[in-house]
Amino acid sequence: MKKNYFITSTLIFIGCLFLIYRPTQAVEQFTFDNTNWSNKSTVNHWPALNDSNYAPFIQTIDTSNTSTSSNIDDSIIIAPPNNYWQPERYSQLNNFNVAKRGATWNGSTGAALHIIDNSLPASVTISHFAHVKGQWIDLIYTVQTKGDNAQHNWNKGYSQSNSGIRQDSGATFLNLGTSTDSRNWFNLWTNSCRPQGLNNTEQASRWDITLQLVNSSTKQPTNISGLYQFTNVNTQKVIAFPTQPLVNQKDQIINLDTKTKLKGHFDANGQFFDVCAQNDYTNSSDIQDHTASFMYLFKNGHLQFSVIRSANIVHPSTMFVRAYPSLSVKQSLSNPDIAATTNKNGQLFDENNQLISQISPDKAAFHIFQNFPNQPNSIIPHTYQIKLSLPTNVTLDSNQSVQLSSLNYRLLTATMKNSARLNKLTSDNHDGTHTYQYSLTNTVLNNLNLLLQFNLQINWDDPSIQKQLITIDKDQYFPIKIKTQVQIDSGTKTQQNWDLPEITSRVQVPNETIRFHYQNKHQKEIQKSVYCHGKLGTPVNYQVPTNFVDKYNQEYQYLNAVDDQGQPVNFNQLYYHYNHGKETNIYLTYQEKGLHHSALAGKKIVFLGSSVTRGLAAGGISFVDFLKSEDGVNTIKNAIDGTTLAGRGANTYVNRMKKQISPQTKLDAFVCQLSTNDVAQNKTLGTISNSKDIADFDINTTTGAIEYVIKYVQDTWHCPVIFYTGLYRDNPKYNQLVARLFELQKKWNFSIIDLYNNSDINNALKQNYNIYMADAIHPRKVFYQDYWTPIFRQELLKLFN
Length: 801
Prior knowledge:
Elements: E1 57-58, H1 66-69, E2 90-94, E3 96-99, E4 111-115, E5 122-132, E6 135-146, E7 172-177, E8 187-190, E9 206-215, E10 226-232, E11 238-242, H2 243-249, E12 252-255, E13 263-266, E14 272-276, E15 289-298, E16 302-308, E17 337-340, E18 342-344, E19 347-349, E20 355-358, E21 363-372, E22 383-391, E23 394-395, E24 402-406, H3 414-418, E25 420-424, E26 433-441, E27 448-458, E28 470-472, E29 475-489, E30 496-508, E31 511-520, E32 525-535, E33 547-549, E34 554-562, E35 584-595, E36 604-609, H4 611-614, H5 623-631, E37 634-639, H6 653-660, E38 669-673, H7 677-680, H8 702-716, E39 721-724, H9 732-748, E40 751-753, H10 759-772, H11 781-800
Parallel strand pairs: 1-12, 18-30, 31-35, 36-37, 36-38, 38-39, 39-40
Antiparallel strand pairs: 2-5, 3-4, 4-7, 5-6, 6-9, 7-8, 9-16, 10-15, 11-14, 11-16, 12-15, 13-14, 17-21, 18-19, 19-20, 21-27, 22-26, 22-29, 23-27, 24-27, 25-26, 28-29, 29-30, 31-32, 33-34, 34-35
């Protein structure tokens, strides 16, 4: 399926950045011409921008088409994500701890992250920060303090009082903001930064900041490009960019206004390019000074810069980074993208096989993404329409079938939700499809990453579906292909139209349940109901018994069957159909025939075995008990859990047969279980003896014990011997034991009731395993009654006819 969700998630990191820079290393030459930072009169002595050495530099921006003029691949806006104020929103804290509250010179900060050791880098990850080109993106924010500031040493630790307020002057906070005020999101605050010469500091200090956008699942760098915007607030600042990435990647500094107050120059060694605001000493509070704003165009999901403290002495101890929306630049709407999903029996997965949500098993989902970046009010889109051409065996029948949400921090308004309309345009396009249109009209979609999820209702009873099914990993799926057209009308602008590629969502064919009720002509239950499970659209292979005998030895004869609506059931045309997760009921009506008289009545038969013969998972009731109650068999049930054929212990089959069943008893037949315990307890299989002398059989082996039982029964009670096999398939050694039993049959000519290879038994297990079996060995009561007892009855009757 298509791996191209193109949500252009755009980031604006707009900051009031106050920091100091005066490095002494040769590789980082002095950025400023004057070291007397405490003298206002020297602050504005900045060199002019060297256009010949620094290209490209764009003085103006074509606001009608930013992406063309500045070669922007994708618009990336750094903005507060959902729940940005909650510390648990952030992961992989390195050299950060969560503080009860942050600190700032102005406003409420809420919770914060604080740097533990200022001499080391500190980093934090914002998981699922953006969704771009079909992948979730994490933002890794790393900050490193550089320089020394005398009285406030960067290595100083952090402590916190009971009230949550910092106690030492070396604390550094990364404020997260509050739920009602996003201005302090990623607001870096410290009172430790000092310029050279201020308060007798010997060196200037600065922040080195790195932003990395990586794939959320692989953690590999992305190839995303975009704009990072800096806006002057409160005071003058200087931001330095390494020149090497600018040269290699053709990154650009873009002015937002032709009347800009920005100035810039290279440092003496050509290592950094600095951009600074002109003088702005006054506290302008939260007012954005766009004449001192610029954008930095970065590529490959990676951005490095240094924040350098300006010469302002009004607030010499603070540095901020704040997030603001900007309406200065019109950004073109991106081409929308549609993504398909996979519905695995009610669990909805995306194209990366990641579980998204729970959904009804008869629904297919499609996701359509569209980015509406920051724009002036005059060009905000007013109409957003999506046309969907769907197969006629699926429907989109109500607004509840469409889920509208936002992927960024902006919430959808009630007006926006109420403006949505869903209309059916055609009933039939005469090509196996019909068309719907979903519209958002007169809606403010500014600064919004829009996600539309269309949930399609499948008509599983449409016979055409069965012809379209595909098989994936042994499971059947119904592939649903749709064609999509998106149209955006911006009011004053020309309409934008996109014909998106055909895409396919897949829905797993669900399992369905049919419950068969046994009742008499008065609709009274005469036997416990039977459950059958199968794939939707497949035939129901349930053999309705023509006659059966209940626990009171009453015999019944089949009359007819009806469904939930009272309609007659044709078992030759009975298929599993979708019933919204509910079982389908079929009522079987029987007529009483009187007391059952079986040819097995009064026959005395021994049943020797272990837990399967006893009925461990059926409350101690097995086929032996049903033969006794329904056919009147005079049963001798000798069964102890966990016992084996092989061995000389007191509870082995051989010893119990010899000591607990009287040789003088007149028996009509002797039935013995082929023990699964011999395999489970790793008993030796042994070899078939060349002798028929009972003294020659090694009863410490399973083969020898079987031969001993056969010979002893023949010599003692002179009656037929029947061995029956179990259903233990988890251990291949039991299959070998079954094969050995048939080899012994050739020598001794005894009967075998082979449940292990019985087709009716195995078909029943394929459809209703959990109903019929408690585990790999032990049947439930309903399995004994519905399948085992009729098979034993049939085989035992052959001995007496």
